[in-house]
Design a protein that fits this description.
This protein is an all-alpha fold. The protein contains 11 helices and 2 strands; from the N terminus they run ααααααααββααα. Helices cover 74% and strands 3% of the residues.
Length: 296
């Protein structure tokens, strides 16, 4: 049997390509067919990413209130498209109240009350431990909720524009282009580390190569899309490239802190969902604000 074809990251390339094409097809069909179908598709991805983060955090002893993050996130996600940005504020309030309420009602989250018959020093130590557990769990819940559904809700703000499908398409395509360009240039010319303590594989050559690739595609293709011109396309490309790189580094920082290689393995040939959407999550709000700055 011939050996399977893999890339430098050890992925099975045929499977990775097949699953990538399938996801891209669903993305495009729902994007241009029905906004609600598209949002439902993205919501499934958001829930999958939250499940990955929940598992990674629980493996390190934290207990995030993931159902609260899902509920608050869905309010933000669908509410933004239905009523506008105010739904983000409502979702954030519900998220904070729900997270604190969960901590009050979940005995495992509170860590239990210390036995007052113990020596005073032991009582104090256990009280500090319980307080740290509450703070850690609340912090973990807010992290995953703000990181995934809140940032993802900006895709609904992009979609709600008059040429919303093209705004979403441009932002996502440029983020993916940055990933491809950075990998191609970094693997070929990479010498100087971009953030060696966080992601040793990333280089300045890769970052600049990704940026150059994005600007080229923005000038050649994005500028011709409905609702775009050359200055807007270039500004969007530059903003998305920087944001996508920061998104990659943010996930690497969390993975390094948790001591895990991947947050999940649900996507054949790709690893986890977060490994595929980390750059997009940071790119979406930047795309929204760049378009807003240009009056689009």
């Amino acid at each position: 049997m011939p050996p399977r074809v893999t890339d430098s990251l050890g992925r099975n390339l045929p499977i990775a390509i097949a699953s990538g094409v399938a996801l891209a097809a669903i993305f495009l069909v729902t994007l241009f067919a029905s906004p609600w179908a598209f949002l439902a598709f993205v919501a499934l991805i958001v829930c999958g990413a939250l499940a990955e983060l929940d598992g990674a955090l629980r493996s390190r002893g934290l207990r995030p209130a993931t159902p609260v993050a899902v509920a608050g996130g869905l309010v933000m996600f669908f509410g933004v498209y239905a009523v506008g940005p105010s739904a983000q504020s409502v979702g954030l309030v519900l998220l904070l109240l729900g997270t604190l309420g969960w901590a009050l009602l979940d005995p495992g989250s509170r860590g239990g009350a210390p036995d007052l018959d113990l020596p005073p020093a032991e009582v104090a130590a256990r009280t500090r431990l319980a307080a740290g557990t509450i703070t850690g769990n609340v912090g973990a819940t807010l992290l995953i909720a703000l990181w995934v559904p809140f940032l993802a809700s900006f895709i609904a703000l992009l979609l709600a524009r008059p040429s919303g499908s093209w705004a979403v398409m441009a932002t996502v395509a440029l983020a993916v282009t940055n990933d491809i360009g950075a990998f191609a240039f970094g693997s070929r010319f990479g010498r100087h580390k971009l953030a060696p303590r966080i992601s040793p594989a990333k280089t300045w050559e890769g970052f600049l190569g990704g940026l150059a690739t994005v600007l080229l595609i923005a000038a050649v293709a994005t500028a011709r899309a409905p609702g775009f011109d050359l200055p807007l396309a270039l500004a969007l490309g530059a903003g998305v490239s920087v944001a996508a790189t920061l998104g990659d580094l943010a996930e690497s920082l969390v993975k390094r802190d948790l001591g895990v290689k991947d947050l999940g393995r649900i996507l054949p040939g790709h690893g986890g969902i977060m490994d595929r959407v980390d750059a997009l999550l940071f790119a979406l709000p930047v795309g929204h604000f760049v378009l807003l700055a240009f009056g689009v």
